[in-house]
Amino acid sequence: MFFDRTGNYNKNVSISGMVPKSVMIPSGVQYNHSSEGYFVIQDSPILIFKTAGKAAIDIPLYLAHHPKKGKYTLFSKCQDLHIKLVPSDNSIKSSSATRTMQQVVTSTSETEADNTELIKTVESINLAQRLIEEADKLPFSESLLDEINYLRQQKRNLTENEVLSGITDILNKYEDKKRLLEEKASAEQLAIQQQAEEKARQEAATIQAQNDSIAAAKQLQAEKAQKRSMWMIIGGVTLAVFGFIGNQIFQHFRNIRNQRNMMEMQQSIANQAEREAKRRVRNATRATSSRMANNIKTKASEAANKKASQKINGKNKNLSI
What is the domain count for the chain? Predict the structure, then answer.
């Protein structure tokens, strides 16, 4: 395609990729302008130039990708089309110029036919570019891999420098995106691994804290049990000591009581013996006194009886008193 003006296209027309140059028309040359601002060679455009003298026209040609109506993406600039014009009243020169123009247009059509592979390659570049931009994880889609393989093959077959540059650029973007996604995947894997390690560390720390808490509780319980046992031992020893001391004191008091009881018993026995002795003495004395009194009475009675018997009629008679 080529342009007879740059900018001011219809509102539904979009030209991107490159900034095109328009047809360079010398002064004094008139031609039928396009309504869109450009001509597409595939549409076989007809241009009529009017000039009063000799003139030369340079037409910059561009290769463009046409994904949809009104949208053109320029990706390569071809060799300019050079046309020489002569006045129409010179039939020989006009015929020669006509043949020259026909030859140039024919060559351009042949070039366009030969550029079918270039167009396919550009379409593949654009598709690969879009797929690369849309790719967000590995592995890449089969469509992207197919386009990359196709572009690598075309890189060996084509000779167009700008297309080769575009292929090289898209292959570099592919490798950069692949490396970026690999780094991203590695970073994500590392982050997942770190998260797993951190989770495992936290779980281990939690388990360790629980074990430490259980161990501390058991240690505290053991210490309490040990203290309780120690206090029980101390209490038992103290109780035994106090029991022993109390027993000794009780034994002492019991011994004192027993001694007092023995002393009282001995004193009671002594008193009893003394009383018995006194009783016996009294009894003995009373008996002795009674015997003596009885003896005296007996003797007195005998003496009286003896005297009485002597007085009564001179006969022996017992008189009872």
Answer: 1
